[in-house]
Every structure is written in structure tokens, then in C-alpha cells.
Amino acid sequence: MASLAGNYTQSIAGHRTFVPKSLPPHLDFTPILHRAIEDATHLLGQVEMCRTLLPNAKLLIYSSLRREALASSTIEGTIASADELIRFQIADQSERQAVREVANYTMALEWGCELGKTRPLDINFILGLHERLLAGVRGAGRAGAFKTSQNFIGTTSHAAIADALFVPPAPEDVLPLMSNLERYLNISNSEARIVQCALVHYQFETIHPFHDGNGRVGRLLIILQMIQLGLLSAPLIYPSVYFERTRDEYYSRLQAVREQGAWVEWITFFTAAIIQQCRETLTWTNTILQLRAQLRLDIRDTRRRASLSIVLDAFFDEPVRSIRQIAEYANIAYNSVQSALDDLQTMGLVYEITGKQKGRVYACRPVLDAIFGHVQ
């Protein structure tokens, strides 16, 4: 029998709002879902092994951070290209707000991963994520603070609350609900760790505690909770890619929990997302290893192969590098790096980003294409 996820109540402002019950609900899993959860946990262990297979795990983290940021922001209607994000990384500025929003997601996740080493996922942590997510973009005036007026999810941005698809808890209910969620996040629970992540994501999205940025903060929490629970050591998968591909089902599965108590269906969907994104990370790791070997073979000049390979390897640590950064990484002279980059650019393997004579920055096209698809 499905466990009801919450109740409707009338807020102080007179709105009919949905207030979720505290976690955990009563859950009655099928054998198929049990096996799926075991498969997902096993695959997460294999993803961790990818860190030892790659020359440097930084590239895997770089890839996951940025693909997660692009996908999560796309779900919210924020469209930015990989090339714009790369250029923002160099210039730290962009005329387009969409690019800054995606970059903020990356920075918020990096900040959360670092802070999470010493701090629990508590309310102040979540407020800090929100503050960084909205810094300098739309909604910045309310960054790092819970909502003070009723929000809702409509069919369009101009829909009236009377026509809303979902009206989350009122502002006066947010703090006690978030306190309950904080408690669940930081106690020992009997549910499988992947199930805990699915429950927390549903609960946060249902509380919808902020005026803006709820979806992005909620998806940040998936990765950060997985790290805190020991399922991952870093952001090595990107669930938002799956949710962006299946956006309609993603929203409908969340709503079905509220309306029908469809917990098993939601957890099944969430687990499928983790399984698929683990498989994509495993495939991507193999692609990068093969790419590195192939690019080395493509260097025909045997006399230059060693020096060119050393410089090329720097881009398998991070795909966008200045000459000075490459010189420090490879421990070779600045002029030698420039000479190698000129050769690699002639081969079509790297390209210069800034267009300047001084402070040049190069990107490795095949590595970026492996991360984002074809980058112009």
C-alpha cells in the first residue's frame, strides 16, 4: 500500500498548499527494485575505480562538474554552450546571464565538495549553496535566504497560482520542514544510501524553500549527499544529464509521489538515473584512455614525440591551460611549451582561446569534444 507523502493545508495567506510528511515514508520494495539498487551501488564502486585508471582524476571531475552544471541549468531553461562556459572560465565574465548561472552552478558544487569534507549537510550549508548559485544573477537579491512569499509551479512563467500544477509549503512552514530534512540528512538511517538520496531530493523539491533556484540546489544536493554517504569521493557522475533528457518524466514522477504516494516508482526512476550515469562515466573513462593513446600515436615526428606527448598530457589533467600552467605541469621551459603548442595547433589538436599575444590560453579540442560533444 502506498504511503501518503503529505497533506494539503491552507496557509496564512489563504493558499491551498501541500505539506510533505517527515522522512522516511513506509516503503515496500519489489525484488526488481532491490536488485536495481544493488546494481547502482556496485556501479558507483566501479566509477570510483575510474579515478585510478586515468592518468589524473582531475579530468573526470572537471568533466562531471561542467556537464552536471550545463544539464541542471538547462532543465531550468538556462541555455549556455560549452564554448561559452570555457571562455567564462578564462575571462571570468560574460555578457550573457545564462553563462554566469551555469558557471555559478559549477562553483557552488566545488564549494560544497570542499566544505563537505568538514561540515554536515545542514541548513546553513544549503543556504550557502543557494547564495553562491545566485551570486550576480537573477534572484541575487534573495540569495542565501528562504522564501518570504508563496511560490508555485505553473504551466508557464505567467500562470496564476489558481492554475498551478503544484503549490509547495507556505513560507511559514519552510523552517520546520527544512529542520526535519536536516535531521534526516544527518542521522543514521536504515534505508539503502541510494534510497536516502532519492528521498531527500524529492523532499527538498517538494518543500521548494527558495524563491528561485530550488531545482538546481536540489540537484547539487544529490551529489553532495552521495559524497557524504560514501557512495562517491567526488562529483564523478552527473545525474542532471539524465533528468534533463527525461525532463517530463522527472517532473511527473515527483508529482506522482505527492498525489498518489508513488514512492517506489520515483525511487525506481531515480535509481535508473544513477545506473545510466554511472555507465556513461565508465564509457567516458574508456574513451579518454583510448583518445590519449591514439593522440600519442598520431604524433608522426618521432624526434618530437616525447616533448609533444608531455605537453599533450597536460590537457588530460585539465583541457584548458595557459602556457605557464603547462610549463609548471610538465616541468619544461616556457619557450619549449610554446614551440610544442605551435606544432599541436598545426596538427589541429589544440587551439588558442584569448586571441592575445600575451597571456595565451590553449584548449585541447579532442578532449573538450569528448567531454561536451563537438565544441566550436
Would you give an account of this structure?
With 376 residues, the chain is mainly alpha-helical. The protein is 59% helix and 5% strand. It has a three-stranded antiparallel sheet. A two-stranded antiparallel ribbon has the order 1-2. Strand 4 (350-352) and strand 5 form a beta hairpin.
> What is the C-level CATH assignment of the largest domain?
Mainly Alpha
Shape label: elongated
Strand order of the largest sheet: 3-5-4
Largest sheet: 3 strands, antiparallel
How large a portion of the residues is in β-strands, by DSSP E?
5-15%
How far from one another are the termini?
52 Å
Helix-strand blueprint:
Elements: E1 6-10, E2 16-20, H1 31-53, H2 58-75, H3 82-91, H4 97-115, H5 123-133, H6 171-185, H7 193-207, H8 214-228, H9 239-245, H10 247-260, H11 263-298, H12 305-314, E3 320-322, H13 323-330, H14 334-346, E4 350-352, E5 361-364, H15 365-372
Antiparallel strand pairs: 1-2, 3-5, 4-5
Q: What structural keywords apply?
A:
2 domains; two-stranded antiparallel ribbon; 5% strand; three-stranded antiparallel sheet; Arc Repressor Mutant, subunit A; 59% helix; Fic-like fold; single chain; 15 helices; mainly alpha; 5 strands; 376 residues
In short:
59% of the residues lie in helices and 5% in strands.
